[in-house]
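Long-time lurker. I teach an intro course on protein structure, and each term I like to show students one example going from raw sequence to a predicted 3D structure in token notation. This year I'd like something fresh instead of my usual example. Would anyone be willing to generate the tokens for the chain below so I can use it in lecture? Attribution to the forum is fine with me.
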Amino acid sequence: FSGISYRAFLGREAPVAVIGLACVIGVLWLVYRRQLPAALPPTNLAANFPIHAAIMRKTIIAVCVMLVAFFAGVPIALVAVGGAAVCLLTRRVKPEKVYREIDWQLLVLFTGLFVVIGGVEAARLTDSLFALAGRFALYRPAVLTVVTAALSNLVSNVPAVLLFKTIVPSFGEPTRAWLVLAMASTLAGNLTILGSVANIIVVEAAREERVTIGFWEYA
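-- Reply from a regular --
Happy to contribute to a lecture. Here you go:
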């Protein structure tokens, strides 16, 4: 929606990502330093996970080509779909095995979020929401950050961004607003489990390993 290139986005958001990552590592160390081992115990991964060398090489090459294409300015969505298709086309792994790894319940949840957002837009509830936010100068980075973080933790960050796609172009500095929106919606995932679908994936994966991550502990 923004037209911002991969290189421009990386240049502006990389420092934010590095600082945010440092903060997360610091908090995890402070809270769990007595539980984290100094080193992970050795394990024979090859015995538990068969390695397909040919597929691994093809995937590494595909990722490198994708990165070059990203920096060259090729449309990101086209590159992503093309790279995924190349990686999935193989006769070494049966499709049924890949399908078993898909979290269908999570996909249904994510699809449902987009349906809800579509309903909100059709009912023009977003107009009332942003009219209220407009009274508090939504175009200001600090206000936009707070509103984005709040919405992201109500409906998850990707659907929340879609709610802004019609209003951000009307701002005086739309490029800066898009970058603030990207930053705020991503960092909002650090607040609660609902802030990002990535969080839900992690929590579900942990539950399968009999590790429970509670809402308040995560927050």
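Some talking points for your students: The longest helix spans residues 6-32. The two ends are 31 Å apart (CA to CA).
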